Amino acid sequence: MNERSLAQSEVRNYNVLMRCLHRWQEFRSRGNKGNKGFRIEFDTLSTDDIADFRDYMKNESTLQSEFPELFKKILLKYPVEVEHDKKCKHINASIQERGENYTIKMLTRFKTFWLWIIKRGVTTNNPFASFEVGSPVYGLPYYLTIEERNHLAEYDLSNRPQLEVQRDIFVFQCLIGCRVSDLIKLTQANITNDILEYVPIKTKDNAKQVKPRVPLNERAKSLIRKYDGIDRKGRLFPFISAQKYNQAIKEAFRLCGIDRNVAVRNSLTGETEMKPLYEVASSHMARRTFVGTAYSKVQDPNLIGKMSGHVEGSRAFARYRAITDDLLKDVINLID
Predict the structure, then answer these.
(1) 275: left (phi over 0), alpha (psi -120 to 50) or beta
(2) Is the pLDDT of residue 180 over 60?
(3) Which residue among 123, 202, 223, 228 is least enclosed by CB atoms within 10 Å?
């Protein structure tokens, strides 16, 4: 699985996995006598080993607290192939607590890699054959209503010009539904006859990829005209870093009074918590807003997927469908 066949974000994700596997191997090899010198070997890794790796990921943050000196040594020994910056080798790097979904995603990525090496004849051993990885559990998606989106778009932020720019970018993202990694690459070359077209970075090497085509409405076209020629790199908008963009989105929501409480699933505990929208706002909410508002009008996943870049049969729409069903039930209750 060479890097040329993967989007850059996936390369980073696999490097995260490889670093975690390295830490597990080093920690386990320093454990009890039965594991002394343990190494991950393609032909001998077992289902029990996968289960141990799963448990390690769930408890790694606690283990670092219990064995700080050991982890300082481990963090200095990353293979050069999976180092991406100096932070990887910092002896005081803090390993974050993880939830069930994170662990499942890492195991899924590990399984994908393992099936890849089997397919290429590296080994015939498959420790995942009888191991149940599981599926991530998500809460219902929360997103802006059309009224909230328009209120945000029209709120006077002229006294905060830099924040106004980021608010405008977010509103535009709500109108086209792309991921932020695609948004920051868009130029006038992506627009023909008022239709935006691009190849999503995340799925550009996927055989089932969808090349989104999104007709631009008047608000979207107005925003493009507002920032025409401003970005020095020739992009549609003058972007800042992803982290600052997310911070700006939260601040814009707060100033605009978008504080409706929504149910949010805690990624660590799995419990549902109620939080105001301005606390949980992020760039990905723009994508959910596009999909959610469109789906509330036309329950056709394939039609919406043609614009959002979801592949046919994507499970992402199931959660929006659940919201629609709740609305239908409310209507029936009114006439009961």
Answers:
(1) beta
(2) yes
(3) 228
